[in-house]
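Exercise: predict the fold of this chain.
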Amino acid sequence: MLNKSHFWIGLFPLILGIITTLTIVVLLNFLPPKLPLFYSLPWGEGQLATRQQFFIIPASIFLITPLNLVISWQLHPSQIFLKKVLLISSTVVSFILTVALIKIVLMFI
């Protein structure tokens, strides 16, 4: 059984997902029609995404976090280390995605 701090660590990524969604919704009209999102693609038009495609970031958070939580719930109680790794990885990934979104948005505001 995980304690109360593990509950908050598991809830934190979902809160970040809500914050990123609200940030996109509030700033949608202030952003240019095309924004850089796909940095792994070659430089140029291929890196650009529409404002609506920025919802990929919170969608990723909302997919990764519940998946990790469900996996951790299915593990045997003796596998506490793996449960902690899943919780922390969800938090780290959601934090990185939130920071990336904020950095991209701050370039254009």
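Check your answer against the key: Strands lie at 34-36, 48-50.
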